[in-house]
Every structure is written in C-alpha cells, then in structure tokens.
C-alpha cells in the first residue's frame, strides 16, 4: 500500500509509531537499512558527478541511517569519508556502524573540495537542543564552500515539530524523510531549509501512521466531497447570497476584490453593502455585483431580516473599527457564516473574549489573520516561542470557536475541534496588495453556498493558491478572480 503523503506526523508521534512498528514484529534495523538505501539512492541520482560523499554521522539513529548510506555509496564506487561521532552503543546505529568499519574523523578535519556532497545524518527527529559550536562551524564552512547538502530526515538544527531552527542549521538541497512528512518540512522557514523533499516508504504500515492524527497537508481530499454542486435545478437564490461590506470612498476597492472573488466562486448573488460615502464610486465600478447603501446599525438590522442572505465578509478596507464591531455583532445574531478579515480583525484587538461570546454555538466564523493581525489579536500565542504555527492557529481556533486561517507562505487552517491543515504550495506571487481580500471573498462565496466552515476555508486557501499559479508571474490581486471558475 502506498504511503499517505498528506498526513503530518510530529517527531514525537513518529517515535511512537517506530515503537509500535517494532512491537508489531517489524525489524527496526530493517527500517534503518531501507532509510539509508533511500538516502544513497537520492545522492547517486541527484549528484551523479559528485567526487566524494562527506557523510556526517550523529550519535543516534539519524547517524545510523548515515552509516548505511555511507556503506552503499562506497560500494557504488564513490569516495566516502565520515565525520562526526561514534554511535551510542547497543542500538541499531551501532549495528550499522559495525557493518562499515573505518575512521570517523572530527568535524574540524573536513577540508571542502570541489565535487563534495554532504550527507547530513547528524540529528533528525531526536534534536533536542541547539547544535554545538563545532557543528555550527562546519555548517558555516559548508555554506561558504557552497557544498550541496542532502539531509537525512531533517536538516540538522531544524525542529521537525515547529519548522524553526533551534540554532545554527543546515540548508539542504534535498531532504530524504521516511514514512510521513513532519510539520517542520512544510512550516516556514523549514520548508526552504529542506529544499526538495523525498518522502520514502521504508515499510512502516500505513495503518500505524494514519492513527488518529488530525494534521494534514492541505489537499483536495479534505474538502472535495463538500464542494457545492451545480445541479440543473438551481436558481440564483439557491446558490447563496454573499454580502461584502465596503469601507469609505478612499478604501472601497478591497470590498470589490472580495465581492468579485465571491461571485466567481459561484455565489448566486453578491451585494456590496456600502457606506454612504462609497456608494457613488461603487456604482460606477459594479455591474453583476449589486449594491445596497447601509448607513448604520438600524439600516443593517432592517436588512438582516432577509433570511436569504447566506454569508458575510466584513473587514477588507472597512476603516471604522467601532462600526465594524457593531456590525459584526449583528451578523453574529443573524446566524449565518461570517468571514472576519483585515479591519474586522483589528476591531477586536483586546476584545477577543467578546468576539468568542458573539459566536458561541455551532462554528460559523472564519478569521483570516496575517502575521501582524494574528499578533494584534493573540499576542500571548504569538510570543510563545515553544509553539509551532500549527499550535498557535489551533489554540486561537479553540479560544474563538472559529476556523482560523493563519496566513503566510505556510498558511495554517485550524478548526476548534483540533483539525488543522498546512497549505504549502501557494506561489510567492500572492504576496501582493489585495490578495488577502480575494481570499476572504473566495471563502465567503463558498460559505454562502452552504459549504461547511473548515472545508470552505481549506478549499478557499487551495483555490487562492491555484488561481495565483494560473495567473502567472506579475499577477495583481485583480487577476485572481478570473481564474477561479476553472477550479
Ligand atoms: N521514522 C522511522 O521510522 C525511522 C527513523 N530513522 C531515523 O531515526 C532518527 C531518529 O533517531 P533518534 O531518535 O536516535 O534521534 P537522532 O538520531 O535525531 O538524535 C538523537 C541523539 O542526538 C542527541 N542530540 C540531540 N540534539 C543534539 C545536539 N544539538 N547536539 C548534540 N547531540 C544532540 C541526543 O541526545 C541523542 O543521543 C530519524 O531522524 C531518522 O533519521 C531511521 O533509522 C529509520 C526508521
Ligand atoms: N510568500 C508567500 N507565498 C505564498 N503565499 C503568500 C506569501 N505571502 C503571502 N501569501 C498569501 O497572500 C495573501 C496575502 O494576504 P494579506 O497579507 O491579507 O494581504 P492584503 O492585506 O494585501 O490583501 C495571504 O493569503 C497569504 O497567505
Ligand atoms: K539530519
């Protein structure tokens, strides 16, 4: 059975899985041999011209994988030299070492040569502190010499749990990992430090890996079954009515970006609810999208009596924070899903408990903070360096009873029930003004069409990234909505 490329397993959980595999009768040394063979295969395939394999061996099983790889590389005819330390006695690593006797030199003895390739088998899942000074010096020397690095499991120095380096850290061109991806392979800056990922099956049964883990790489399987259909019997009112709130004249474009994205997602109707100063400028821009002037709380209360309004986006370019809070509390009472973005988030800085109370009960709120907004709302979580971005998003989701889309190059989508997904393949061209407004509109459109909240957020983030890929280089936020229907 093929391995699952979508689950993310923390290094601790991986340790449990190794143990469960051993308990079920699987030979752990066989797993190490398989791991080392995969590493050697990647080195040979990707560096066919290499003159020498510089294999860095640590004291644990990561080092054991290195000894196996070293032996196989030597057998293939390559010059191999090992640096590092002897393994701890008694375990699989010592057994691997015994199969390939010979010198293990001190780190300081390595003199970089043209044609070297480093196999970094110092520390993997077992890294529990910053690397020592001699390793740090070696990392620096390798960086200066531009020696290519193939990392075993993880670049040494990188936390597989958080994706953050614990101190100095290798920057690998390739990382060969086993059985399942770890969060640190996808979370930034880990994703960049790993280079190209090679996820290899070493014979740990999928049934042990699936377990009850609830963190995934964002992928179609999480949401495809919940995507809104397009039955012939539909009319526009059965396809949902999305409302996007516009800010004042000067910042009215953000709402248009959200609204257009929502319409392109297939919402039957989209209305921009405009503050009076923006009505004229919106009227000159909008065609398929409708408009309604909403002056104040009284007018909004009146309109919310229309039960066909099925989803709301508030915050992009909105401006007035007090009004944003007042409107959001009315939307919460209306009982339909709400996407709170940008100024809508800032409006609740220091008032997150109030927000949680508004949206108690069935989850129907999506928060879409970028790094700065997340910090503004959840300073304690943002400052806690022991937490990963996944931990932070999950804690915020739980506290707010909301689905949190913690944006960035490694957007994390988290639900109050603990489900979480890391989106790792959006192009960097999305880092452009207004692209967040488009994302809010996509999620709003899917929610208005009746998609469940976590699934809509996962689908929205994936579609946003895919739309950017299709739009190509040099995209502006305006280009994104046109690519949505094809998705
Ligand atoms: N996932 C799996 O099923 C398999 C995992 N294997 C390998 O096993 C590795 C995990 O092995 P281990 O649990 O032995 O852990 P590691 O080999 O990653 O490191 C653990 C050892 O390094 C020491 N250490 C940690 N951080 C240090 C630092 N900064 N400076 C100095 N010493 C430090 C620890 O005290 C311990 O002795 C994985 O990364 C993978 O490469 C493979 O052998 C095959 C099977
Ligand atoms: N380097 C990157 N790679 C991939 N996606 C990115 C990157 N930087 C930003 N993004 C995405 O682009 C969007 C930017 O949103 P946001 O920060 O709210 O911008 P704005 O306020 O200008 O709309 C988010 O969806 C974020 O995940
Ligand atoms: K390593």
UniProtKB/TrEMBL annotation:
<dbReference type="InterPro" id="IPR017953">
    <property type="entry name" value="Carbohydrate_kinase_pred_CS"/>
</dbReference>
<dbReference type="InterPro" id="IPR036652">
    <property type="entry name" value="YjeF_N_dom_sf"/>
</dbReference>
<comment type="function">
    <text>Catalyzes the dehydration of the S-form of NAD(P)HX at the expense of ADP, which is converted to AMP. Together with NAD(P)HX epimerase, which catalyzes the epimerization of the S- and R-forms, the enzyme allows the repair of both epimers of NAD(P)HX, a damaged form of NAD(P)H that is a result of enzymatic or heat-dependent hydration.</text>
</comment>
<comment type="similarity">
    <text>Belongs to the NnrD/CARKD family.</text>
</comment>
<feature type="domain" description="YjeF N-terminal">
    <location>
        <begin position="14"/>
        <end position="210"/>
    </location>
</feature>
<keyword id="KW-0630">Potassium</keyword>
<feature type="binding site">
    <location>
        <position position="254"/>
    </location>
    <ligand>
        <name>(6S)-NADPHX</name>
    </ligand>
</feature>
<keyword id="KW-0511">Multifunctional enzyme</keyword>
<dbReference type="Pfam" id="PF01256">
    <property type="entry name" value="Carb_kinase"/>
</dbReference>
<keyword id="KW-0456">Lyase</keyword>
<feature type="binding site">
    <location>
        <position position="436"/>
    </location>
    <ligand>
        <name>AMP</name>
    </ligand>
</feature>
<feature type="binding site">
    <location>
        <position position="317"/>
    </location>
    <ligand>
        <name>(6S)-NADPHX</name>
    </ligand>
</feature>
<dbReference type="InterPro" id="IPR004443">
    <property type="entry name" value="YjeF_N_dom"/>
</dbReference>
<dbReference type="InterPro" id="IPR030677">
    <property type="entry name" value="Nnr"/>
</dbReference>
<comment type="similarity">
    <text>In the N-terminal section; belongs to the NnrE/AIBP family.</text>
</comment>
<feature type="binding site">
    <location>
        <begin position="61"/>
        <end position="65"/>
    </location>
    <ligand>
        <name>(6S)-NADPHX</name>
    </ligand>
</feature>
<feature type="binding site">
    <location>
        <position position="120"/>
    </location>
    <ligand>
        <name>K(+)</name>
    </ligand>
</feature>
<feature type="binding site">
    <location>
        <position position="153"/>
    </location>
    <ligand>
        <name>(6S)-NADPHX</name>
    </ligand>
</feature>
<dbReference type="InterPro" id="IPR029056">
    <property type="entry name" value="Ribokinase-like"/>
</dbReference>
<dbReference type="InterPro" id="IPR000631">
    <property type="entry name" value="CARKD"/>
</dbReference>
<dbReference type="Pfam" id="PF03853">
    <property type="entry name" value="YjeF_N"/>
</dbReference>
<protein>
    <recommendedName>
        <fullName>Bifunctional NAD(P)H-hydrate repair enzyme</fullName>
        <ecNumber>4.2.1.136</ecNumber>
        <ecNumber>5.1.99.6</ecNumber>
    </recommendedName>
</protein>
<feature type="binding site">
    <location>
        <position position="437"/>
    </location>
    <ligand>
        <name>(6S)-NADPHX</name>
    </ligand>
</feature>
<feature type="binding site">
    <location>
        <position position="370"/>
    </location>
    <ligand>
        <name>(6S)-NADPHX</name>
    </ligand>
</feature>
<feature type="binding site">
    <location>
        <begin position="124"/>
        <end position="130"/>
    </location>
    <ligand>
        <name>(6S)-NADPHX</name>
    </ligand>
</feature>
<feature type="binding site">
    <location>
        <position position="156"/>
    </location>
    <ligand>
        <name>K(+)</name>
    </ligand>
</feature>
<feature type="binding site">
    <location>
        <position position="62"/>
    </location>
    <ligand>
        <name>K(+)</name>
    </ligand>
</feature>
<keyword id="KW-0520">NAD</keyword>
<keyword id="KW-0067">ATP-binding</keyword>
<comment type="subunit">
    <text>Homotetramer.</text>
</comment>
<feature type="binding site">
    <location>
        <begin position="407"/>
        <end position="411"/>
    </location>
    <ligand>
        <name>AMP</name>
    </ligand>
</feature>
<keyword id="KW-0479">Metal-binding</keyword>
<keyword id="KW-0547">Nucleotide-binding</keyword>
<comment type="function">
    <text>Bifunctional enzyme that catalyzes the epimerization of the S- and R-forms of NAD(P)HX and the dehydration of the S-form of NAD(P)HX at the expense of ADP, which is converted to AMP. This allows the repair of both epimers of NAD(P)HX, a damaged form of NAD(P)H that is a result of enzymatic or heat-dependent hydration.</text>
</comment>
<keyword id="KW-0521">NADP</keyword>
<feature type="domain" description="YjeF C-terminal">
    <location>
        <begin position="219"/>
        <end position="487"/>
    </location>
</feature>
<keyword id="KW-0413">Isomerase</keyword>
């Amino acid at each position: 059975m093929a391995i699952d490329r979508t689950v993310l397993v923390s290094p601790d959980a991986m340790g449990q899985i190794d143990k469960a595999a051993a308990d079920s009768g699987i030979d752990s040394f066989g797993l190490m041999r398989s791991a080392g063979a995969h590493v050697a295969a990647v080195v040979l395939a990707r560096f066919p011209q290499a003159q020498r394999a510089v294999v860095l061996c640590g004291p644990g099983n990561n080092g054991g994988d290195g000894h196996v790889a070293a032996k196989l590389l030597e057998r293939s005819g390559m010059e191999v030299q090992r640096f590092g330390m002897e393994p701890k006695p008694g375990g699989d690593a010592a057994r691997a070492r015994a199969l390939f006797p010979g010198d293990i030199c001190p780190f300081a003895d390595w003199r970089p040569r043209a044609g070297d390739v480093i196999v970094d088998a110092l520390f993997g899942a077992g890294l529990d502190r910053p690397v020592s000074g001699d390793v740090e010096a070696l990392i620096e020397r390798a960086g200066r010499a531009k020696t290519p690095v193939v990392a075993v499991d993880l670049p040494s120095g990188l936390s597989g749990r958080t994706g953050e380096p614990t101190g100095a850290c290798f920057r690998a061109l390739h990382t060969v990992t086993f059985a399942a991806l770890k969060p640190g392979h996808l979370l930034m800056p880990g994703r960049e430090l790993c280079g190209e990922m090679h996820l290899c099956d070493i014979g740990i049964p999928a049934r042990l890996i699936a377990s009850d883990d609830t963190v995934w790489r964002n992928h179609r399987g999480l949401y495809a079954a919940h995507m809104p259909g397009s039955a012939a019997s539909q009319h526009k009112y059965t396809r949902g009515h999305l409302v996007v709130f516009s800010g004042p004249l000067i910042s009215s474009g953000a709402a248009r970006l959200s609204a257009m994205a929502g319409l392109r997602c297939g919402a039957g109707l989209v209305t921009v609810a405009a503050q009076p100063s923006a009505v004229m400028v919106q009227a000159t821009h909008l065609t398929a999208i409708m408009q309604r002037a909403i002056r104040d709380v009284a007018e909004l209360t009146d309109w919310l009596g229309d039960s066909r309004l099925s989803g709301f986006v508030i915050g992009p370019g909105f401006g007035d924070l007090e009004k944003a809070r007042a409107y959001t509390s009315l939307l919460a009472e209306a009982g339909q899903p709400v996407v709170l973005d940008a100024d809508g988030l800032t409006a609740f800085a220091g008032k997150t408990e109030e927000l949680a109370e508004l949206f108690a009960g069935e989850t129907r709120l999506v928060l879409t903070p970028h790094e700065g907004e997340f910090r503004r709302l959840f300073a304690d979580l943002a400052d806690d360096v022991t937490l990963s971005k996944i931990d932070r998003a999950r804690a915020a989701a739980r506290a707010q009873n909301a689905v949190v889309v913690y944006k960035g190059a490694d957007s994390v989508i988290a639900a109050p029930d603990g489900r979480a997904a890391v989106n790792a393949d959006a192009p960097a061209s999305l880092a452009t003004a207004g692209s967040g407004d488009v994302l809010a509109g996509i999620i709003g459109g899917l929610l208005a069409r009746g998609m469940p909240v976590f699934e809509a957020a996962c689908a929205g983030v994936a579609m946003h990234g895919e739309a950017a890929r299709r739009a190509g280089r040099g995209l502006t936020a305006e280009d994104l909505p046109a690519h949505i229907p094809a998705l």
